[in-house]
Amino acid sequence: KQEVTQIPAALSVPEGENLVLNCSFTDSAIYNLQWFRQDPGKGLTSLLLIQSSQREQTSGRLNASLDKSSGRSTLYIAASQPGDSATYLCAVRPGTSNSGNTPLVFGKGTRLSVIA
Amino acid sequence: DAGVTQSPTHLIKTRGQQVTLRCSPISGHKSVSWYQQVLGQGPQFIFQYYEKEERGRGNFPDRFSARQFPNYSSELNVNALLLGDSALYLCASSLTESWGNTIYFGEGSWLTVV
């Protein structure tokens, strides 16, 4: 059974700092991995999607990497801002083919606070 | 373009009651999934529908049911509510059944069972 772990559970940093959020998964047989942002009481916003054949994806100040063999992904946030404060969730899509019914498996998230 | 829309946004029910949650996917998206998120946890998969057919079901009791309509909107029904059903219910849509597509979530429906 695929399990996703995110460390740390909570993180507080001063504005401007570069930071890394970690995600690990127990089964390397994944189709893709997606990072989401969730503001308090709100839904999920997709940040980056990495296919299993890719090593990293970038969007603005965000960079996500994937090391499938070791079961790890990192989300790098450059020059953090107070507006980045939210919970960041990592989710993997188990399986290796483009078919079948394998829903996303989520971690519990990392709650980030960026202090001005 | 509108994103995934869900209704109601908040509701309170008593134990034993029934609830129906509604979801409209992004225009052109044919796949809808439902997830339950208990406070402090990651979302847990409940159902996936594609072209009005159930394509996947998570580890939830039969009190949970769903359907998808010809316009691709969807409803999630929960019968005989328990206190433990209190959660944020998230609907997500994607273009097709292909798992390579990005999945987009709505704002969710907050259900409180008292």
Give descriptors for this structure.
heterodimer, A: 116 residues, mainly beta, six-stranded mixed β-sheet, five-stranded antiparallel β-sheet, 57% strand, globular, B: 114 residues, four-stranded antiparallel β-sheet, 11 strands
Short description:
The complex is a heterodimer of chains A (116) and B (114). By secondary structure, chain A is mostly beta strands. Chain A has strands at 4-7, 10-14, 19-25, 30-38, 44-51, 56-59, 62-67, 72-77, 86-94, 105-106, 110-115.
Characterise the protein shown here.
The complex is a heterodimer of chains A (116) and B (114). In chain A, a hairpin with a 4-residue loop joins strand 7 (62-67) and strand 8. In chain A, the strands form two sheets. In chain A, strands 2, 4, 5, 9, 10 and 11 form a six-stranded mixed sheet that branches. In chain A, strands 1-3-8-7-6 form a five-stranded antiparallel sheet, with no helix packed on it. Chain A has strands spanning 4-7, 10-14, 19-25, 30-38, 44-51, 56-59, 62-67, 72-77, 86-94, 105-106, 110-115. The radius of gyration of chain A is 14 Å and the shape is globular. Chain A is mainly β and 116 residues long. The model of chain A has no long low-confidence stretch (mean pLDDT 93). With 114 residues, chain B is mainly beta. Helices cover 0% and strands 50% of the residues of chain B. Chain B has no helices and eleven strands. In chain B, strands 2, 4, 5, 6, 9, 10 and 11 form a seven-stranded mixed sheet that branches. Chain B has a four-stranded antiparallel sheet with strand order 1-3-8-7, with no helix packed on it. Chain B is globular. The termini of chain B are far apart. The mean pLDDT of chain B is 93. The A-B interface holds A 4, 31-32, 34, 36, 41-46, 49, 51, 89, 91, 93, 95, 98-109 and B 4, 6, 33, 35, 40-45, 48, 55-56, 58, 88, 90, 92, 97-100, 102-108, 110.
